[in-house]
Amino acid sequence: MIKLGVNIDHIATVRNARGEDHPYPYLMAKYSMDSGANSITIHLREDRRHINDKDLKIISSLKKVPLNLEISSNPKMIKLAIKFKPNYVCIVPEKRQEITTEGGLNLIKNKKKIKFAVNKLNSSSIRTSLFINPSIKDIKLSKNIGAKCVEIHTGKISNLVKKNKKYHKEFLNIKKCSIYANSIGLEVHAGHGLDYKTTKILKKIKQIKEYNIGHFIIGESIKYGLRNVIKKFKTILNKN
Ligand code: PXP
């Protein structure tokens, strides 16, 4: 089975826009699982712009919610992961100014720090993944570092598809990388910028076992949820 991880960061973005509690990320984590998700992803950013420490505490305590925590390799973040023991950790690069995670990790520059983090997480029995660009060099490094999985950054192919540009070369690159990663014993995941169209394209790569999707799912849910919520308000307003 190909797994779907639902990233609920943007539930927290909406919640934070009001500085109150609604919508509750932990309830949406449960609801996503009830709706068929295989896991829940949250990115605890160093600036806590969406998911915060309280969310991590609550969501990591939910029994029926396999949690994939995205964090930077900052030792403080690794310490938090070990404290709350999510099922999985995906180490991602993080820049304060970026709107979203713009690319994969720089494994050469940060090898020592990332290896230290992966070792710590592996010895706490947390499944480790590294968010990387589709490159054979980074896959070899990921294996060398000791990660169990790689998550391939699909931002480039997603942008090409959305702009109706030629994406075949990037598709073949992701395919080559996925086949190679799988052949050396790394589980292959994919994420970033995915929508229905890009997911259908990438699904042809059989080595990709997990997709982590956030922004599009939350955006699309507004479309499918709007009618029900409006109906409910109309009933409240017009029922005697
Ligand atoms: N996977 C990783 C490692 C990410 O950092 C992100 C973005 O936070 C996603 C998947 C989800 O990307 P999107 O929100 O564009 O679907």
Describe what you observe in this structure:
- 49% of the residues lie in helices and 17% in strands.
- An eight-stranded parallel β-barrel has the order 1-2-3-4-5-6-7-8, surrounded by seven helices.
- It has one domain (3-238): TIM Barrel, CATH 3.20.20.
- The radius of gyration is 18 Å and the shape is globular.
- The longest helix has 24 residues, at 215-238.
- The chain has 240 residues and is α/β, with parallel strands linked by helices.
- Bound molecules: pyridoxine-5'-phosphate.
Secondary structure topology:
Layout: E1 3-7, H1 9-18, H2 25-34, E2 39-43, H3 53-61, E3 67-71, H4 75-84, E4 88-91, H5 111-123, E5 127-132, H6 136-145, E6 149-153, H7 155-162, H8 168-183, E7 187-191, H9 196-202, E8 208-213, H10 215-238
Parallel strand pairs: 1-2, 1-8, 2-3, 3-4, 4-5, 5-6, 6-7, 7-8
Helix pairs in contact: 4-5, 6-8
Bound molecules: pyridoxine-5'-phosphate.
